[in-house]
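WP5 quarterly update. Target: DNA-binding response regulator. Source organism: Streptomyces brasiliensis. Length: 234 aa.
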Amino acid sequence: MTETRTFTEQNPIRVFLLDDHEVVRRGLADLLDAEPDISVVGDADTVEHALVRGPALRPDVAVLDVRLPDGDGISVCRELRSQMPELACLMLTSFDDEDALLDAIMAGASGYVLKQIKGSDLVSAVRTVASGQSMLDPATTARLMRSLRADPAETPAVPPELASLSPRERDILALIGDGLTNREIGKKLYLSEKTVKNHISRLLAKLGVQRRVQAAVLASHLEQPEHSEQRSAR
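Structure tokens (predicted):
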């Protein structure tokens, strides 16, 4: 699981920006550079430039526009994180797009926020993802999870990795999908917080994902009737 990281004025969060609008890039740079613990180390206006400049600058956080003239920020997220696994990507978009949110989560994005977000909230989002936590627009995420659970016939086939989970790991995965913390899961299942953390580390490895939020999306498949019946029978 991702370790919590801390940053200071002497060791600021290094941020890379990708947006095809110069005014937006400048505005974001001014907003973030005004914070003592954040430093914008570079920017790009196209997918091509981002894939060249990003790895060279070694940022801690990449703020990526989802829709770009020569591609999309989600593919940039996936490619940059393949080269820099510790990179936290914060997707920024004007569009409230559930498909893009799902794609971003599965590409390893740490956060997904709308451009209508307040400046102070964006700064907080950058700090949140830099520390190793997830930051997703709550309303959009909740609606996505409801739609996945409401229309199982329209969701992708149940990932085969789910079959490899033990009953206990399935229970924990379902509770992750419900948004519970490790401590809350432990209380519900009468387990220590450390035991829960160990279970989560193993189930993330089995699912082939790195972040809880990715596992939460996969947990929606456990809400299909046959799985719900299995859980209630235990």
